Structures are given as structure tokens and as C-alpha cells.
């Protein structure tokens, strides 16, 4: 069995290529049970979350062949930032689809960062204006640099702003992006930054809305990545009410995504008003953006099909 490190993952992937890999994966489909989601209560500290995310190729598809089975084991520990560790920890186990033989144990944190950002890039390819050039990233965690590159792979981004509760962490991301030749700066006032952006990409562990619908300009695309439990939220009801709403998977979004669950509960959104998921967008079953003035909102909670597609891509490239 191969042991594939974070550096190995980086050497096997590029953002534009993984976006296209995910596009093919959603078009082809896979068996993807709803993920196991467990709260780990810890007295005197924030609750952690344990996630088990299995998926396997659809073996009824004659093109699959032996195929693969994969499962990600992940934890989310909000207090980790205080000790300088990432909130998300994970490993990914890839197995032979015919025999169940373990093939590779892959660094799950890095796979998660790559596939999450590229899923947002995939959605942006359908939902952002073609001329979208101003990107605001809310949150300065491990995802932020990947989000800058994924959105830039599908739209002509010329200006990147980073907002974070800790401006020092935002500056670190800005410095890394500028060193890579991108045009980045720290954003000051969040409402002002949201109002100026063409794409707002939010990746936080917030329990309170950060993106206010009242300040969104016509034509903005809002990309929401955090709020992976019903009690978390990154946007308010007005943002959801003003936008055409899209999700990565309908089953996951209406059950787990706080931005969707809370909007459904308040009446700001009806389930039948969700325009499409990534399966429907990639297959052309439903349209994406329909006008330059339309506000679009994409809510991602993470899908095991994304991990499977990324894990296979890493394994096959590493083995070659």
C-alpha cells in the first residue's frame, strides 16, 4: 500500500486540471451515501466533529471496470487555531473496487483543501460573470491560497482581497499570494469589501452571518464553503433571498448546510427554489447564471465524490 504525503499530493495536482476531473466525476456519478456526521463533546472546549465520507464508482457503469472504493476520515476541531494547528485533520483510504484491497493512504488534509477549492472553482465556471475580476476571500485558513488559484483558473481574476478576523493571518496569505505573482491585499471593512467584489468566497468556521445580502451588488457570485453543520452560518437571510441558490449536492445541503437549513426554516428559501446542484450543472440539465445582473450563491458542504475523484487522480499520477 502506498503512503502518499501532502507534498506528493501537491506534485500530482493542478487546480485547472482538478476542476476538470471534478466536472467529469459529477457528470459520470458515483455511489455516495450521506456522510456520517458525529459531534465529539469536549468539556471546557469547543465541540469537535468526526466525519466519515465513503464513496465508490458506480459499478453498473460498463466504463468503470474494476473501479475504486474510498473513504475519508476527518475531524474538525475549531480550537486548533489557538495552538497553531489546522482545524481540519484527515486521512483518505483508497481501495481496489473489485477486491477491496487497500491501495493508498493519502494525506486527507491536503486532498480536502484541493478538492474543496476546486469544487468552488467548478461552480464558479457556471455561476460567476465571465468578466469577474475582483475576488474577495473571507477567511485566512489553509483553503485561502487554494481558493485564490481555483477561482483564477476559471475567471480573469486581477485583484484579490483577503479578510479575516485576525489581520495578521490575512497578511500571511497575502504575502504568499504576492510572492506567487498574484495581486493581493488585506481587506479592511468587510461590508465594503463584499460590496466591491465580483466573487465572494467564504471559508470560515463562523456561527454568525458574515456576508450580508444588503451590500451585495448585482452580478456578484457568492461562494460559501464553511457552515457545514445546521448551527453554523456565513450568509444572512437577505443574501439567500436575493440570490439564485445552487448547491454541491441537494441531499447534503438541505440536511447539513447551515446557510441552507436556517434559510429554509426562516422561510427565506424554499427547497424547490434551489436552482441546481453540481450534478445538474455539469450534465447541462439545469442552467447556471442567466444574466449579468443576477446574484448567484453556491453552498458547498463537501461531497465524498469529490474526495474519490481527487484521490484517484493522485493515486494514478503518483503510481505512473
From TrEMBL:
Cross-referenced SUPFAM superfamilies: NAD(P)-binding Rossmann-fold domains
The protein's enzyme class: lyase
Gene Ontology cellular component annotations, sorted alphabetically: cytoplasm
Keyword ATP-binding recorded: no
Keywords (A to Z) from UniProt: Lyase
EC number(s) on file: 4.3.1.12
Any one GO biological process: carboxylic acid metabolic process
GO molecular function annotations of the record: ornithine cyclodeaminase activity; oxidoreductase activity
Gene3D superfamilies per the UniProt record, alphabetical: NAD(P)-binding Rossmann-like Domain, ornithine cyclodeaminase, domain 1
Keyword Membrane in record: no
Family, similarity comment: Belongs to the ornithine cyclodeaminase/mu-crystallin family.
NCBIfam families recorded: PRK06141.1
Name listed for the protein in its UniProt record: Ornithine cyclodeaminase
Taxonomy of the source species: Bacteria, Pseudomonadati, Pseudomonadota, Alphaproteobacteria, Hyphomicrobiales
